């Protein structure tokens, strides 16, 4: 019986398992006009009336740019073995082309040095959705040239940090960049062109391939190059052939559009057929798939909740319960005849169903899809309406239970033969949650947005104990 199914058996992880936490640049750094940084698409989007809850933006965020030493000290107190952060492209290469701004690179050099001095492994994500605005003005991800600009940027950062950072991720959740940014418009840059979103998806794939090549040319061979995908666990509402076909359609748009070329060197033929009304994919040029399909050193998986779908009447105008924000425009190109349903169970503050079985299912899928490829859970976590109690503490038992359930699912997958080497909690601390502004708290560390004071929540102490012992404490142990 797997550990997670026997409450009397401690859930223990392999000794080398990496315990980390993750953030992204625009969500935490602030200092958006300092040391040469220029606007990204998220600066523009968040300052556009009506695009974010309460008109919130990342101008200050949680001021990590000035408080990074304090934050690294907090990571060390919590016993983290690794910290995954992203680099702001606009801070390093303000126009998205040309020479680097050394002051921008120096911030990341200082951050890496601080992490290493505390025994914390840095894991760098090159792109977490914050395209320089000038590149968007030139066409953004639907334009092929953006992929080549990304490779130039990857080379710059790889040369600056590659001697000290061994773990690299090219792109975080390219699905969100392509389809929330260019199809539904709920993320920056806020465009609603389904055909452009498919072009963007291909050019993001191409950017990964070109960027991985650039990184490897700039860094020691020992370094690991990966990508983080928010691959969906797509389940049909029934075994009716129409529902099964709907699930296949969404699986292609959520997963196959990226892991097809990345892992297998080809887009799914079913994806081509399903999107033929929008595009003939003539932007996939000779040699592109070979550039994209090169060896990965690891694969990052981000998981929050599964999807439940069925066939539907394309003329129906019911709300789309896909968990990706409210918009009259769908993030699922050529899939208006697919309905999304709320999955049963308890929910987080985001309205997402809590289902650790989906994480186990996702891990085992990629264990089959890419045998021998090391996996990392690069994001997993939950938003709750956290409050500071009268005793000055933040009690979040729901998040502790969430983490226990999902980490138990990871351990069960390892028992079932999966090569999962680490877990990065999303997120280290409360921050700017994109279009939701500051209203959704994902952090293990509470941030008072008026004073920017950091307070570790109960879940942070629970996770710290797990990281130090390699064993999951009981949910009521802290």
From TrEMBL:
Report which reactions are catalysed by this protein. Answer: Hydrolysis of terminal, non-reducing beta-D-glucosyl residues with release of beta-D-glucose
Q: Which InterPro entries match?
A: GH, GH_1_N_CS, Glyco_hydro_1, Glyco_hydro_1_AS, Glyco_hydro_1_beta-glucosidase
* Residues of the active site: 379 (nucleophile)
Q: Which GO terms describe its molecular function?
A: beta-glucosidase activity
Keyword set, alphabetical order: Carbohydrate metabolism, Cellulose degradation, Glycosidase, Hydrolase, Polysaccharide degradation
Q: Where is this region: Disordered?
A: 315-335
Annotated family: Belongs to the glycosyl hydrolase 1 family.
Designated name of the protein: Beta-glucosidase
State the organism named in the record. Answer: Streptomyces dubilierae
